[in-house]
Amino acid sequence: MRVGLVCAHAGPSTDGPAVGTHEHIARVAAELAERGHDVRVYERRDAPGLPESLDVDGYRLERVPIGPAAPLPTAELVPHVAAYGQWLARRWAGDWTPDVVHGHYWIGGLAAAQALRETDIPIVQTFHSLGVEQLRHLGNRYDGPGERIPLERALTRAVDIAVAQCNDEVDELTRMGLQRTAVAMVPTGVDTHQFHPDGEAAPRDQRARILSVGGLSAGHGHEDLIRAMRLVGDAELVIAGGPPAEQLAGHAEARRLRELAERNGVADQVKLVGAVPHDQMATWYRSADVVACTPHYSSAGRVSLEAMACGVPVVGYAMGGIADAVVDEVTGKLVPPGDVRTLGMTLRRLLADNAGRFAYGHAAVDRVRCSYTWERTAGALERLYERVVGRRRPAEKPLETAVEEPLETTAEKSVEAA
Length: 418
Known about the structure:
14 strands, 6-stranded parallel β-sheet, alpha/beta, Rossmann fold, 17 helices
């Protein structure tokens, strides 16, 4: 099969590994290429002088020259969606036409749908996160573009299959109007060659260590863990993520978390280490007795899976990808989202239970290796592509019609103008 993977965001810098959505796309592309498929990945060029295309791990990476050759926030990408789609349409009208196109994130999906609106090439879409879910869980801390939610709803009517990464997302997509048969659940994968129990661990002192991984911004749940530390006892909470360590002093959220720790009397137990390169994260997971996953929203549950692959039990909120990944009382413990008291008591009991942590850790490694490898993720997508290609048909409704019905926004006007 000829497979096109579309991400409207720019890729990661060339001097660091891909993380999150870009890691997902890169690993899926490499696995599909290894299975013999002709794969091309499309992302926006965000710097001058970058090569237009290059071969990476068996697939072709193409940088789309749309918009300024500079980093842009998501909201500023929306006006470029139509031009992105037109560029793809011209590209695919040449000597390479995909059999199936897979859009990633809502911006990438809109560009793919724009490119294919007058063809019978099927579209598969992975949202990676949904604005309506983020709004529900984050409330007034949600800072996504105002047009995102209506455009995501429009996009669901322009694709053949939507790929959910957890069961909560399956339910959300059906509430958005998709038939259940038009939603496939394919969880993300984990690099088990990078994340495994054997290897070096980051330095630590004699106290038990709880590790939390995530950006220093609203919704990552670090504040819940800091409040819970009052109930945990003699242990340290290490928070990895955010800006580099040397920039933490001037970071507003880092200051807020430190002030919260002071007010709760646990300042000497909370340590912020800043950004950790992804290729060094395994050493931090292995240094922990427990990894705590308490974000207010998580579709993929990547941190919980990486920790489990390293043989570390997870205590996490029972929501999203975390609820799917962690088997309660088998690979860790699940607690009700936002229940700080239960979170603290659960962490305290697990830290005191050496045998329980050992058993959870072993079961966690087995679960990841059986159910969450990149080979398994790519295999599921390969079967999905074969199914939609086999029933190839024209889209029921072109994207421009779908967008016009729910929304008259600046985004729509910019698409029309382009």
